[in-house]
Amino acid sequence: MKIVIAGAGAVGTHLSKLLSRDHQDCVLIDADPTRLSGLDGRYDIMTIQGSPTSIKTLKEAGTESADLFVGVTPDESKNMNACSIAHALGAKKTVARIDNYEYLAPNLKPFFEKIGINSLIYPEVLAAIDITNGLKMSWVRQRWDVHGGALVMLGIKLRETCEILNQPLKNLCGPDDPYHIVAIKRGGETLIPSGNDKLCVNDLTYFMTTSEYIPYIRKISGKEHYADVKNVIIMGGGKTAVRVGLTLPDYMNLKIIEKSERRCEQLNELLCDTDTMIIHGDARDFGLLQEEGIENTQAFVALTGNAETNILACLTAKRLGVRKTVAMVENLDYVEMAESLDIGTIINKKTVAASHIYQMMLDADVSNVRSLMMVDSDVAEFTAAEGSKVTKKPVKDLGLPFGVTIGGLVRKEEGILVNGNTQIMAGDSVMVFCHEQNLKKVEKYFKSSALW
After folding, report:
1. Contact, 98 vs 120, CB < 8 A?
2. 221/306 Cα distance (integer angstroms)
3. 173: Cβ–Cβ under 8 A, 6 or more apart, which residues?
4. CA distance linking residue 378 with residue 275, whole number of Å
5. How many other C-beta atoms can be found within 10 angstroms of the C-beta atom of residue 393?
6. What are phi and psi of 280, to 5 degrees?
7. What's the predicted TM-score (pTM) here?
8. What is the pLDDT along the chain (452 residues), one digit of tens a residue?
9. Which end of the chain is more exposed for a tag (fewer CB within 10 A), N or C?
10. What span, in angstroms and rounded, lies between the C-alpha atoms of 76 and 307?
């Protein structure tokens, strides 16, 4: 596949990394040579300095034969114009990063298709969905739903209260048990567990289960004493905070603390139809946090544009007794550090956006691709095609690549956990976990035999 990416910011470079791992024909365009410096040496891609709206530059990048053109510069208008030009030049599919929520209205899709833009990505909206889902379960670091919760993957940090520590997994996760463990992050290492592996204190463990057994997982992981989230404080009133404010469940009370008085006025207008309280101040101020009831707050979310500030603010909130903390960490170099400090949930809206774009280039019927930064892995929902390889043999005989785990499937809206004897059928939605493997290697198992 040939992919042209306009914009060498965090989204563009992370997407280039994913495509390089897949050995795709990838070209990255940016007007700033410093952004491109060294990328062609680090990743197996071609870089071109130039404007993404220059017809000459787009032709030089081979846009006329591109299977996918991606506009992810910081400028929404430039992305949309670049996609329109790329479409006119012959690019088969285009996607533009935007920052105007109005454009996501379903009735506008035909309009954007008409001007050559096939898909729109709003990273702040995607991040807000992750944050809101995470706040609904105070004891979970990460949650991923398949088919509206028929299957659920839960990332949980294990403490001394966990009931299933230090026991071989083969004694815990048999064919008839209501959960599987698909990955473990221990220190700086990711484990795809075997039956002889054991869970240890401070492991970040990924459970696959069905929605009815979520309370059971909460019990055995020793999290029943975690209070459900009712009161939330957000530090930073940017676009992501606004989207969280508009989508948070009614039973949660939200306060947004913002340093800019002018932005506070804007927030009052944007969130006027909600019960959100806007507070002018600095959320790093101990006194202000205590005044705003931090001791009765179950979740603290730091969404400023500065990763260090967000990490330090979450550490402060934890020191003041807040159980659930969420930090926006845009600098990927800080993600590992934030995890080592036991910050809580880490959100990076650019990797979330890159994952959504990445699924557009897969040939198989795949949806809901997610990048799990903490375990350097991807998780995706594939639909098994009629006659596909995955339907020919039981799971244990499929010869899946090392680092690939099938955690569960949804058949006729029912979530089913998978074991070695499971026979996958055409039409099943299958949850696939890939550690240090590209999804392109996996998709061939789910494609129709006519496409092999």
Report:
1. yes
2. 33
3. 179, 180, 181
4. 36
5. 12
6. -85, 120
7. 0.80
8. 899 999 998 889 888 887 877 777 899 999 999 999 888 788 889 999 999 999 999 999 999 999 999 999 999 999 999 999 999 999 999 999 999 989 999 999 999 999 999 999 999 998 998 899 889 888 888 888 877 778 888 999 999 999 999 999 988 877 778 998 988 988 878 888 888 999 999 999 999 999 889 999 999 999 988 888 999 999 999 999 999 999 999 999 999 999 999 999 999 999 999 999 999 999 988 899 999 999 999 999 999 999 999 999 999 999 898 989 999 998 777 777 777 787 888 888 878 888 778 766 655 455 566 666 665 677 778 889 899 999 999 998 998 888 888 888 989 888 888 888 899 999 998 888 887 656 777 888 888 765 44
9. C
10. 23
DSSP class of residue 374 equals G
Query: Hey, how many other C-beta atoms are within 10 angstroms of the C-beta on 75?
Result: 15
Q: Which two tokens stand for residue 392?
A: 């020919």
The span from the CA of 301 to the CA of 294, in Å, is: 12
Structure tokens at 204: 């970040």
Query: Which residue, among 278, 339, 284, 280, has the nearest Cα to 317 in the 3D structure?
Result: 284
* Cβ 335 vs Cβ 372: under 8 Å: no
Contact 121, 349 (CB under 8 A): no
Helix (H) or strand (E) holding 27: strand 25-30
Burial class (CB in 10 A: 0-12, 13-18, 19+), 246: middle
**In angstroms, what is the C-alpha Rg of the chain?**
22
154: left (phi over 0), alpha (psi -120 to 50) or beta: beta
**Residue 128 neighbours by CB distance under 10 Å:** 24
Strand 204-209 and strand 151-157: pairing?
antiparallel
DSSP of 148-215, one letter per residue? GGTEEEEEEE--TT-TTTTSBGGGTS-TTSSEEEEEEEETTEEE---TT-B--TT-EEEEEE-GGGHH
The number of C-alpha atoms within 13 Å of 389 and in the hemisphere containing its C-beta is 15
Helices (H) and strands (E) in the chain, counts: 15, 22
User: Whose structure tokens read 């650019």?
Assistant: 350
DSSP H or E stretch at residue 429: strand 429-435
Q: Do residues 294 and 233 lie in contact, with contact meaning Cβ atoms separated by under 8 Å?
A: yes
**Structure tokens given for 137:** 């379960």
Contact 316, 290 (CB under 8 A): no
